[in-house]
Design a protein that fits this description.
Strand order of the largest sheet of chain B: 2-1-3-4-5
Strand content of chain B: 25-35%
Order of helices and strands of chain C: HHEHEHEHEHEHEEHEHHEHH
CATH superfamily of the largest domain in chain C: Aspartate/ornithine carbamoyltransferase
CATH class of the largest domain in chain C: Alpha Beta
CATH architecture of the largest domain in chain C: 3-Layer(aba) Sandwich
CATH architecture of chain B: 3-Layer(aba) Sandwich
Strand content of chain C: 5-15%
CATH class of chain B: Alpha Beta
Distance between the termini of chain B: 18 Å
Order of helices and strands of chain B: HEHEHEHEEEE
Chains: A alpha/beta, B alpha/beta, C alpha/beta
Oligomer: heterotrimer
Chain lengths: ~425, ~170, ~350
């Protein structure tokens, strides 16, 4: 007998009438109001809950392989499921770096055994992420890597970048690059703006990103590679991507959710929690990034989840490790923006589902015959991110102890319940 | 109600007793040092009455109090001002009210940081008793016994007046 | 905290700094930055320092305020000069002083800053005087050590050097009487200067008419205008109408990072010599936080001349440090009393 699951009483976003979803063999068999009588092994009463497609994250650090004190595939995918994600791309900056088929296989094997959701490895574009020697990208693809990135490290120079693109283009591989001119960024760790001026922080100028965006766009145009720009932070970058795309360059882009909610002001008081790469920038940049998501120039919102042990953040700002533990808070942060009228619900949903899915050749939808990967949310409920509510090893959440809108009740991936109410 | 004479009466009394005391001690060139705030007003008044030529000094004992660990630093501390050498001189310390004696201890500690005086005498307008240290005024104008809910304070500088206030327990 | 839609300029930082540094009833308990401290507080510090200047003129230059307290000089970046003035200030307050040169000990053995602090706390320290190469290190220390230890910032990264700025303010007040209407220029390496950042804040809070920053573009922070100062690249023009000119020290390594071509060119353009000083008001005073590079940022004849108040600055340094140390310790006393009261109320 096939495994069946029925969800009753859920609503699709913006719709009034409750409906049921019938899941069989991991797929959505039927969606409609008249299914309440259909037989199922398991029934979820989803009255008052909203049905969302499972989210897709293009940039998530699972910290495995690694020494484990910052998290592992089991802990961080559990956290991701709690955030409504059913597919996460595992960043290559693990220890060792995912620059060989062996590491890719390891990630996939561990994920198969310990993760309820889909883990898609991103391969390192250069060996050891050094930015100097190309990794065996074709071999990595065969092992299961869906795209290639250099983490948050820059290529050594434009010549290597150009060759990396040309090679990726030959084999139709997607390059996901975080644009950063390392010489301009130097030792900076904060936006080179008024907060850095006042607090004497080492600045990363906007041009450290925009110069790299321009260089990457020109090289992508020349080589014809499929380029995805990750974690944009500047308004100017969005405009440049839009302009390049209008010219026919194959380029997509994402932004980390925290860039849409916070600005450089978050570092007031030297709060190391908000030490992120790229840095949180000005209010004008934040507005432009929001517009980019709304208009679709920015295809995806990513979590850029970077769990750490507490010691990594317990130091003077400049010597702390960058990153936030975001994956459980992303949708709630997005709903905060929707409530304030800064982002539409449709754009938020698109940037968490179909937008990122299309970049890695996946699908994310609620339709008959589609994979049953879903989230059931109480959109009117509120929760607080605290040690007792957070499942990630990383406790440095973006919005600690404040009420956040949107409580995830259930996550279903491939027909299996992977997160249920506490 | 407690009955205290008016300040001019008290001052007359204080002046006379101080003169007698200095004469008895054979001190002919005393240096007056008032403890802020009330003591300074009194020192100024006595200075005029005694017709002294050398200036009087002002002492702010904030840095020498023994209750720093309980109440912290006086937020309105102003510099002490002793416009003379104290070495081998006869100092007359002037305060408005003496009670526990702790203020006087602090003031004497401070005076010794300026040098080694020949002697220090103590003048107080009102003596409340209740001593906690073996310190006694050489000259006082008026002893006074207050119930626990009352405090006495010299107000001034023009005119000088003694004020008795009720305090809540 | 979820930020508001339109964040007001640095108000969040000022609020955070005030809350960190002041007790519930507004007394100083740490002295880390001038951000968040108001005119009344800065004036209190200057007034208290005046009282300590008088103490410094006595035969015995010592008061018993911090008797039995332990002050630890935590210098993660070595500086004999600054450490000595803090040490002397603490000793004149009768505190016991422990000097730890952390730059060569704990951290080189791999011990984290947090571990070092926990160890020091166990020694029943009452106050840490902290110098660190990272901006914000004293903030971090104040937030992570248990309550009851006062943190005094002796210079952190490029962020702040508030005691240096306040002693400069004391020098200005002694020479000019008040801050009203003053035009003050800060000249040289503003970008890397923690002293300049604290001076700017102090001068603005104390209400001068103008703070002018005179430097080449490479030695100014990005968005320097947001500091609320006038920016001037031409020093000769920038000297006009000045009441006070503060020269900053130029580090030799600035030439290596291509921020400046040479010391010679810098001196010609931004060095204070007799000729440039003549363009300021005739009673303009010359200041320098030291140590001076003669012939790099200032001519000897000016540094030693009648308008120079550089030596007063040294005397004032001890008084200012005595003032903030005793005030912060006093705030800790008040804090402790408040905690005891809160505990009693709980029971």
């Amino acid at each position: 007998m096939s495994k069946t699951l029925r969800i009753d009483g859920a609503r699709l976003p913006g719709q009034e009438s409750p409906l049921s979803v019938l899941v069989s063999d991991g797929r959505i068999k039927a969606v409609g109001a008249e299914l309440t009588g259909a037989e199922a092994v398991q029934v979820i009463d989803a009255a008052g809950l909203t049905l969302m497609p499972g989210f897709v994250d293009l940039c998530c650090n699972l910290r495995e392989p690694g020494n484990g004190q910052k998290g592992n595939i089991a802990s961080e995918t559990r956290a991701a499921a709690r955030g409504g994600y059913t597919t996460v791309c595992a960043s290559p900056d693990t220890s060792p770096v995912n620059d060989s088929g062996a590491v890719t296989h390891l990630v996939r094997d561990v994920a198969r055994a310990r993760s309820g959701i889909r883990v898609l490895p991103i391969g390192a574009a250069t060996r050891g992420l050094s930015g100097e020697l190309l990794s065996d990208m074709v071999g990595l693809k065969a092992a299961g890597c869906v795209a290639f990135s250099n983490g948050s490290r820059a290529m050594a120079n434009a010549r290597i970048l150009r060759r990396c693109m040309a090679y990726a283009r030959t084999f139709d591989l997607t390059l996901m690059l975080q644009p950063l001119n390392q010489a301009l960024a130097a030792d900076g760790y904060a936006h080179d703006g008024r907060v850095a001026a006042r607090l004497g922080l080492l600045g990363v100028p906007e041009v450290a990103e925009t110069a790299a965006v321009m260089e990457m766009l020109l090289l992508a145009e020349e080589t014809g590679v499929r380029l995805h720009l990750g974690q944009l932070s500047c308004g100017r970058s969005v405009a440049m991507v839009a302009e390049a795309r209008a010219r026919g360059v194959t380029v997509s882009a994402d932004v980390a959710m925290h860039q849409l909610l916070f600005t450089e002001e978050a570092l007031s008081g030297f709060d190391s929690r908000y030490h992120v790469v790229p840095p949180l920038r000005s209010e004008a940049d934040r507005k432009a990034l929001l517009e980019g998501v709304e208009s679709g120039v920015i295809d995806a919102i990513v979590s850029q989840h970077q769990p750490h042990d507490s010691a990594a953040k317990q130091a003077p700002l400049g010597v702390t490790e960058p990153g936030l533990s975001t994956v459980e808070s992303v949708f709630s942060m997005g709903l905060t923006l929707v409530r304030r009228g800064e982002l539409s619900f449709a754009a938020l949903t698109r940037a968490l589902t179909t937008g990122p899915a299309s970049i890695i050749g996946q699908r994310s939808e609620i339709a008959e015959g589609a994979e049953a990967s879903l989230g059931l949310w109480d959109l009117n409920g509120e929760w607080r991110a605290r040690p007792d509510t957070i499942r990630s090893v990383g406790q440095h959440v973006p919005v600690p102890n404040e009420p956040l809108p949107g409580v995830l009740r259930w996550t279903i991936h491939g027909g299996e319940v992977v997160c249920r109410p506490d | 109600m407690t009955d205290i004479p008016e300040v001019p009466v008290l001052l007359d009394r204080l002046e006379q007793r101080l003169k007698d005391f200095l004469e008895e001690k054979g001190i002919d060139r005393p240096l007056l040092v008032g403890i802020r705030t009330g003591g300074v007003w009194l020192a100024e008044a006595l200075h005029a009455r005694l017709g002294l030529i050398e200036p009087w000094g002002e002492l702010d004992i904030s840095f020498y109090r023994d209750d720093f660990s309980r109440i912290g630093l006086n937020p309105r501390v102003t510099p002490s001002h002793l416009p003379f050498e104290t070495e081998d001189r006869d100092l007359v310390l002037v305060d408005d009210v003496i009670m526990s004696g702790r203020t006087i201890r602090a003031a004497m500690n401070e005076l010794f940081d300026y040098g080694r005086p020949s002697s220090i005498s103590l003048v107080a307008l009102i003596d409340l008793g209740e001593r906690e240290l073996p310190i006694q005024p050489d000259v006082a104008a008026c002893p006074l016994k207050l119930p626990p809910h009352q405090r006495v304070k010299l107000t001034g500088p023009q005119p000088l007046a003694v004020e008795i206030r009720e305090v809540r327990a | 905290m979820i930020p508001a839609t339109d964040p007001v300029v640095l108000s969040a930082h000022d609020r955070a700094s005030r809350n960190l540094q002041l007790t519930g009833d507004g007394q100083l308990r740490h002295f880390i930055t001038l951000d968040g401290l108001d005119l009344v507080m800065l004036t209190d510090i200057l007034d208290t320092a005046d009282s300590f200047i008088e103490v410094g003129e006595r035969t015995i230059k010592k008061v018993p305020l911090l008797r039995g307290r332990t002050v630890v000089n935590l210098f993660f970046e070595s500086s004999t000069r600054t450490r000595s003035t803090f040490e002397l200030a603490a000793k004149r307050l009768s505190a016991d002083v422990l000097n730890l040169d952390i730059s060569t000990s704990a951290t080189s053995k791999g011990e984290t800053l947090s571990d070092t602090l926990l160890n020091l706390e166990a020694m029943a320290s009452d106050m840490f005087v902290v110098r660190h190469s990272q901006s914000g290190a004293p903030h971090f220390i104040a937030e992570s050590v248990t309550p009851g230890v006062a943190i005094i910032n002796a210079g952190d990264g490029r962020h702040a050097h508030p005691t240096q700025a306040m002693l400069d303010m004391l020098t200005i007040r002694q020479n000019k009487g008040s801050f009203e209407g003053l035009r003050v220029a800060i000249v040289g390496d503003i970008l890397h200067s923690r002293v300049a950042r604290s001076q700017i804040r102090a001068l603005q809070t104390l209400g001068v008419a103008e703070v002018r920053l005179i430097a080449p573009g490479t030695l100014l922070p990005a968005d320097a205008e947001s500091l609320g100062c006038t920016i001037e690249y031409d020093m000769r023009r920038g000297m006009a109408d000045l009441d006070v000119v503060i020269m900053l020290r130029l580090q030799k390594e600035r030439m290596e990072g291509a921020l400046l071509p040479s010391e010679r060119e810098f001196y010609r353009l931004y060095g204070l010599d007799t000729e440039k000083l003549a363009l300021a008001k005739p009673d303009c005073i010359v200041m320098h936080p030291g140590p001076i590079n003669r012939g790099v940022e200032i001519e000897s004849a000016v540094a030693d001349g009648p308008q120079s108040v550089i030596l007063n600055q040294v005397t004032n340094g001890i008084a200012i440090r005595m003032a903030v140390m005793s005030m912060a310790m006093s705030g800790q006393v008040a804090d402790r009393a408040a905690r005891v009261r809160a505990q009693e109320a709980d029971q």
